[in-house]
Amino acid sequence: MQKKNIKLNKKQNLNRQGLVNANTNELVFVPIEKVISKILLIRKKKVMIDRDLAELYGVETKILNQAVKRNIRRFPVDFMFQLNKNEKTQVVTNCDHLRILKFSPQLSYVFTEQGVAMLSSVLNSERAILVNIQIIRTFTKLRELIATNIKLRQKIDVMEQKYDIKFKKVFDVLKQLLMQDNKSKSKIGF
C-alpha cells in the first residue's frame, strides 16, 4: 500500500487542531494563559469554577448548571463538587474576576479535569467541544510542567546533598576567621 501525501490548507489544519467551529467556520481559540488563570486549587484538586467555564463555552452559568443537573450521573464527586461557604469566600477573596460571586446566594460548582471533559458531552455544542479540547490540552501541559519541576527539584536536592559537605567546610572556615577577627579587636576606653 502506498501512503498518499495529503496537503492540508490552513483552515483544514486549524480544524484538525480543534480550533475551527465546523458549523460556523469561526476560529475558536482560547489562549493557554487565560485557561491557566482560571484553574484553581481547591481541596487539593485543580479545578475550574462553573462561571469561568460558562464564559469560555459562551453560555450562561445557569445553562451550564442546568445541563449538569440533567446529567448528574455523569458527574461523580471526583468530577464535580459544590463549594462550601468558606471555600466560596476564599475564592472570592483571592480571585478578583470572581468578586461578583460575593453577593450571589448560590454556591458555585467546580469541575476537575475529568468533569471538564464530561461537560462537552452534556453541552452538545461545537464551541463546547473546541474549548474543551483546549482546556484538556492546558491541564495536560500543566501536568507536564509539574513533572518537569519535580524532576528539577530532585536534581537540585541531589546536588545540594553532594555539595553541602564541601560548602559546610567553607562556611566553618569563614566562621573561624570571623571569630578570630572579633577577638583581635581591642577595646578602647572604659
Description:
With 190 residues, this protein is of the alpha+beta class. It has one domain (16-149). The protein is 58% helix and 8% strand. The protein has 7 helices and 4 strands, in the order ααββααβαβαα. The protein has helices at residues 10-16, 32-37, 50-57, 61-70, 85-94, 113-123, 126-184, and strands at 39-42, 45-49, 80-82, 109-111. Strands 1-2-4-3 form a 4-stranded antiparallel β-sheet. Strand 1 (39-42) and strand 2 form a beta hairpin. The model is unreliable at 1-22 (pLDDT under 50).
Question: β content, as a range?
Answer: 5-15%
* Total count of helical runs of at least 4 residues: 7
Beta-strand segment tally: 4
Q: Compute the number of structural domains.
A: 1
What key phrases describe this protein's structure?
4-stranded antiparallel β-sheet, 190 residues, alpha+beta, disordered N terminus, 7 helices
What's the short version?
This protein is α+β, with helices and mostly antiparallel strands and 190 residues long. Helix content is 58%, strand content 8%.
Question: Which helices and strands occur, and which strands form pairs?
Answer:
Layout: H1 10-16, H2 32-37, E1 39-42, E2 45-49, H3 50-57, H4 61-70, E3 80-82, H5 85-94, E4 109-111, H6 113-123, H7 126-184
Antiparallel strand pairs: 1-2, 2-4, 3-4
Helix pairs in contact: 3-4, 6-7
